[in-house]
Design a protein that fits this description.
4 helices, about 130 residues
Length: about 130
């Protein structure tokens, strides 16, 4: 048992902080599940949705301002939808990659116990080298 020096315990409001334990084999499985979700489910569905949205034919007669404005709004909304779909896919993939990196980097208990919040942040930010 180690004795902690009172001034070295950190702020009082964190003294009851409990570390979160993670089963690294489960973390690796979580990463794989996220990757599968993106590749097998999200991407095919997103493609079908986008294909349907892009298949809307449009021709507006000259001078039909309202219809032209409606189509402009539709086009802008479609563009934003594509951005959000891509962002969701990328963020999910990044989370999966971070989980996989953490699981690989800290496979044994010694490495796991040496992991720091900075290591996890680094993995989430795509730092392949990390500090662990």
């Amino acid at each position: 048992m180690t004795t902690r020096i009172p001034w070295d315990e950190g702020p009082g409001w964190l003294r009851d902080y409990q570390p979160i334990q993670a089963d690294l084999s489960t973390l690796a499985e979580f990463a794989k599940a996220l990757q599968d979700e993106v590749n097998r489910n999200f991407v095919p569905h997103a493609r079908r949705t986008v294909d349907k949205l892009n298949s809307v034919p449009f021709t507006a007669p000259d001078g039909f301002v309202e219809l032209t404005e409606a189509y402009t709004t539709y086009s802008n909304t479609l563009e934003r939808t594509l951005e959000l779909l891509n962002a969701h896919s990328a963020a999910t993939w990044d989370l999966a990659a971070a989980a996989e990196t953490i699981a690989k980097r800290y496979r044994d208990s010694d490495a796991y116990s040496a992991a720091t919040v900075a290591d996890v942040r680094g993995a989430l930010n795509g730092d392949a080298t990390g500090s662990g």
